[in-house]
Amino acid sequence: MKKFLSLVLAATLLLLIPGCQSGGEAAAPSPAESPDSTPETPAESATPTESAAPTESAAPAESGDAPSSPAPTASGESNVLIAYFSWAENAVLEGDVDAVTSPSVLAPGNVQQLAGWVQEETGGDLFSIQVTDPYPSDWDACLERANQERGDDARPALVRRVENLDQYDVVFLGYPNWWYGVPMALLTFLEENDLSGKQVYLFCSHGTGGLARSVEILTAAAPEARFSDNVFDCYEEDAASSQEEIQSWVAELGLASGGAEAAQARTIEVRSGETAVTYALEDNAAADALLAQLPLTIEIEDYSTNEKIFYPPQALETAGAPAASGGAGVLAYYEPWGDVVLFYDDFSENASLFALGRAVSGAESIRDLTGTVTVAVAEG
After folding, report:
1. CB atoms within 10 A of CB 261
2. pLDDT of residue 264
3. Half-sphere exposure (Cβ direction) of 126: Cα atoms closer than 13 Å
């Protein structure tokens, strides 16, 4: 009954306050991004219009209760895991929460919504990263605790680990930008769930600080995982209306429902010693022709100031292949010379330069490839 009355009261307050929400999102300020923020001296970006994630809200729970902790919705068939941290599922609704001055603790939160849309597109299994000691729903109190955890380099205890982790070849990891970084619970998750060798895609909801140091922190925490350079991020106020954008992103990765295994089969690795670059191939005749010649052990050469090249044994079919465009990370084929080109900087488009693929991890290491390299389908 107490829970029901709290819900009714919260809903009534929201109806009486026009403009509190837009597109289902809370307009109240969310915890600041700055690593130097304190409840007394928030970061300069921590204003009601510029505040950073988390803006997620929690499903109402009795004060003192831990949030619910569903297991992955494992089908036993999917090789895609969508693991995410949302304040919405890591906070306790206090009995005296003020819907005006505190965040609206109503599910779903931003990251929770984004994760659900990734799940819809991939057919993967959802896993909510949840702490055993939930955070306060009060903005200042959450800020204080999160800053303390960051300062202590804490690893908050989690409710559970992923079961049957070996089942998954692809992992989507979602999170809010918390004070120019990530919730420390994500580091607990990475330490308890070994993602070595798995392809990892990041998605993030944030305020004015953007991705900040979050990608750097996560890649350092799981150095053996294969993190894609293609990260989805959206401003917190746009999260509730980002379904089309994030699902288009998933489709561009080749991971729409039914496509994960096919996409993995079209992922190749170029390796020189400990240096490796992973590419997702385009769906065209030229890329097919390269894939058919793998594996290769071949010499790679420097050319100009923005590319590496190698010559496959057989010329590639280019009929119907689109022209290459973009910049660093593009894999292309220059038909007049018959060479495969690995760009590590911007380049000019050319009618004879055809798209083969794009780097999904290791793009920053392309210029370090040297001597004899192996080119092969990436291991799952």
Report:
1. 14
2. 61
3. 18
What is the domain count for the chain? 2
* Residue where a domain stops, chosen among 242, 260, 278: 260
Q: Is residue 2 part of a domain?
A: no
The per-residue pLDDT for range 45-56, each reduced to its tens digit, is 332 223 333 333
Place of tokens 């970061």: 43
Q: Can you tell me whether residue 190 is helix, strand or coil?
A: helix
83-113: string of b/e by CB count within 10 Å (b at 16+)? bbbbbbbbbbbbeebebeebbbbbebbbbbb
- Please indicate, yes or no, if residue 172 is contained in any of the structural domains: yes
Over residues 67-115, the pLDDT tens digits come to 444 445 544 467 899 999 998 889 876 655 444 433 334 567 889 999 9
Residue-range definition of the domain harbouring residue 100: 16-260
H/E segment holding residue 199: strand 199-206
Residue 149 lies inside a defined structural domain of this protein: yes
Residue 307 lies in a domain: yes
